[in-house]
């Protein structure tokens, strides 16, 4: 008798549990249509809003309760477009959200502090006593700065060429051509320049022939080992400066033009240097 009583009690408890669990589950499923987010979608459909507006709003809402097949049929009967239903399904929230696994946080590496004086600098100043049309500055054989133009060409007979433009004004005799950071140590600095003008070939033509004009570049190159204009360029020169850490080597390049001899000839161009540590 005691055993039968225990079975009866256990059966009664199981029936009570099923009575409470299944109705609650059914109520939970039906409650999706009563969710404010779903109600808002139905209100937009009933209000006659366009698909584009409803779609944008569904995207803005961002999440929806889990919808059963019966819920979807009901929503379809109320005129909710299939495209909107698909998006609502994609935005469903699971009944028991799984907490996100935190992403691995990389170790914090403190930045290496800059040590004052771990670099040096070079400043190149050009002392220009006469007008030029071009200059260039090279450090360790690499051109790092240039200004102006090396003019090339010859005119058609009877035509004139464009006159080369000068750099700066005549009173501006000092030009800061380059300032750059470098590693401490010895560096080679070279400065080149050109003075360009237009000549014509009248001395070479017979009477009545049309003259032609051509550009003449004369000066010193900083980077070119060889040049096609033989006799027009001076010898490449450079100076080495031992740059201390945290300081600036100031290189002053003086452009020079020596008059030709009394027997004639072209001027001789050159560059001389002086350095100081700033």
Secondary-structure blueprint:
Layout: H1 2-30, H2 36-46, H3 51-61, H4 69-77, H5 82-90, E1 120-127, E2 134-139, E3 142-148, E4 174-182, E5 185-200, E6 213-220, E7 239-243, E8 248-258, E9 268-277
Parallel strand pairs: 1-8
Antiparallel strand pairs: 1-4, 2-3, 2-5, 5-6, 5-7, 8-9
Helix pairs in contact: 2-3, 3-5
- The chain-level structural class is alpha+beta
Tally the helices.
Answer: 5
Q: Provide the low-confidence segments as ranges.
A: 21-29, 94-98
How are helices and strands ordered from N to C?
Answer: HHHHHEEEEEEEEE
- Strand percentage lies at 25-35%
**Shape from CA axes?**
elongated
- End-to-end distance, in Å? 111 Å
Describe the structure.
With 278 residues, this protein is of the alpha+beta class. It has five helices and nine strands. Strands 2, 3, 5, 6 and 7 form a five-stranded antiparallel β-sheet that branches. Helix 2 packs antiparallel against helix 3 and helix 3 packs parallel to helix 5 (82-90). The longest helix has 29 residues, at 2-30.
């Amino acid at each position: 008798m005691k055993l039968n009583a225990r079975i009866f009690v256990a059966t009664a408890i199981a029936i009570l549990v099923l009575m409470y669990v299944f109705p609650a589950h059914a109520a939970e499923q039906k409650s999706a249509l009563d969710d404010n987010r779903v109600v808002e979608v139905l209100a937009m459909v009933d209000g006659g809003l366009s698909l584009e507006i409803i779609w944008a709003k569904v995207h803005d809402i961002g999440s929806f309760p889990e919808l059963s097949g019966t819920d979807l049929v009901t929503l379809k009967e109320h005129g909710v477009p299939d495209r909107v239903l698909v998006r609502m399904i994609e935005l469903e929230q699971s009944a028991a959200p799984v907490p996100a696994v935190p992403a691995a946080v990389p170790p914090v590496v403190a930045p290496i502090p800059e040590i004052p004086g771990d670099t040096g600098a070079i400043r190149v100043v050009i002392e220009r006593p006469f007008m030029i049309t071009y200059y260039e500055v090279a450090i360790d054989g690499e051109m790092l700065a240039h200004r102006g133009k090396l003019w090339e060409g010859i005119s058609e007979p009877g035509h004139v060429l464009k006159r080369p433009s000068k750099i700066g004004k005549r009173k501006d005799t000092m030009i800061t051509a380059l300032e750059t950071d470098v590693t401490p140590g010895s560096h080679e600095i070279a400065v080149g320049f050109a003075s360009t003008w237009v000549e014509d070939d009248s001395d070479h033509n017979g009477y009545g022939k049309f003259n032609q004009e051509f550009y003449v570049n004369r000066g010193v190159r900083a980077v070119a080992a060889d040049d096609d204009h033989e006799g027009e360029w001076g010898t490449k020169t450079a100076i080495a400066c031992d740059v201390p850490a945290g300081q600036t080597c100031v290189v002053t390049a003086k452009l020079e033009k020596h008059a030709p001899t009394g027997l004639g000839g072209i001027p001789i161009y050159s560059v001389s240097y002086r350095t100081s540590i700033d």
